[in-house]
Input
Amino acid sequence: MADLTNITIPAAYNDVIAKILDTGYFSDQITICKFAFAYAIKNHFGEFNPSDIDKQNSGGDGGLNYNVGSFDGGDKFLFNFVSSAYPDCDSPYKWLRGIVIYGLMKLKEKLKNINSVSYEDIISA
Output
């Protein structure tokens, strides 16, 4: 199956990304997306199917868009991690996008009633 060449994050998550970016703890939006990936893996691994999340959120709707090379770099660490963590995965970048989106979804739920987000708010489970 063909894998992604671009990681597109739906516009529905622009607000939570902006909220976290406003804290000053992250330098840019792509770093927040990578954090969301790590947050989902650390706190919610096994609770969701990345492929299903990706299928539900695969439309380009004005959200963020990153080339996989910009997102993962030349060493393909995230590609290899997803391939190892999910042995049945045939499209690691699609699954990676699903994991990022799930992490953003969980962060959005967690931070929705917090006006001034602190570092502890972001990193706590």
